[in-house]
Amino acid sequence: MLPRMRTRSLCTFLLLAAIATLATACNRNQAGGETAVTLAGSTSVQPFAEHWAETYMGQNPGITINVQGGGSTAGVKAALAGAADVGMCSRELKPDEAAKLKKIVVARDGLTIVVHPSNAVADLTVEQVRSIFAGRIKNWSEVGGADHKMTVVTRENGSGARGAFEELVMNKESIASSALVQDSQGAVRQMVSADAGALGYVSHGVVDASVKPLKIGGVAPTEATLTAGTYPLIRPFLFISKGEPAGAAKAFIDWILSPAGQALAVKEGLIAVQK
After folding, report:
1. How far apart, in whole angstroms, are the C-alpha atoms of residue 217 and residue 231?
2. Mind listing the pLDDT tens digit for each residue in 221-244?
3. What's the CA gap between 212 and 14, in Å, rounded?
4. What is the pTM of this model?
């Protein structure tokens, strides 16, 4: 079996190769008279980008927007390599990345801590969440809940959600190795919904009745608190490119930043970009 680091590198290489193949096909479409744009990266941004793309294509016949996942780090690499017209990232860029890439904030998201609906706990502090994910708190009775062992669910290394969570919550502490790692928001939500002792983190826009969102420091993740910036766990959703976006990619981004595109973001549970 390949070591974990080599396995992640191989997966990223295969993803970039697949994106490059898609981009080549898109170029052929463009040569044939159909304009195509390729997006790749954050699986947190992906479902929202797909909704934007679907609406935009419906209004602009002859434009094809292809959206691929792979994670924020893969999105950065795809943008740097030119394998995608636009990379998607759901964390702040690292200094070396920011020096090479143009970033555009297309929306903001509330990172929401979710538990099973039967869990009586309704509110945690950031410090309590940090202690839980670091492995110091292991039972719900320690934070006012039932005597029930916790199941901690996290995202994989390289995902924007995990990067944002580590930045906003962990304060340079490591997530415990006992945490269960999932490779998508849907998988985190499904695992939490099936385990009465579980908790994890997902985008505010993908929370549904199968899980229960917690208040953080007494502040619930609602449209009002997210827009006002009073909810403490807010992260950017970025589109990134090597140089200024141009042509069809720029037109698509401009539409996303327009009142119509931002209204769709809000409808899907995101925070509109404040101008």
Report:
1. 9
2. 998 999 899 999 999 999 999 999
3. 36
4. 0.78
Place 31 in a pLDDT band, splitting at 50, 70 and 90: very low
Give the domains, in start order, of the chain with CATH numbers. Answer: 4-107+235-267 (3.40.190.10), 110-228 (3.40.190.10)
Mean pLDDT of the chain: 89
The number of residues in the chain equals 275
Closest by CA to 265, choosing from 241, 243, 236, is 236
Contact at 8 Å (CB) between 231 and 219? yes
CB 189 within 8 A of CB 183: no
Q: Classify burial at 6, counting beta carbons within 10 Å of its beta carbon; exposed 0-12, middle 13-18, buried 19 or more.
A: exposed
Distance CA 214, CA 126 (A): 11
**Rounded to whole angstroms, what are the CA distances from 198 to 92, 146, 256, 275?**
28, 12, 35, 38
Q: Where are the beta strands (DSSP E) in the chain?
A: 35-41, 63-70, 86-89, 102-115, 123-124, 151-155, 180-182, 198-203, 212-213, 215-216, 234-241
Residue type, 215: K
Two tokens at 242? 């090597």
**Can you name the residues that pair with 200 across neighbouring β-strands?**
114
Amino acid identity of 90? S
Strands annotated E in 90-150: 102-115, 123-124
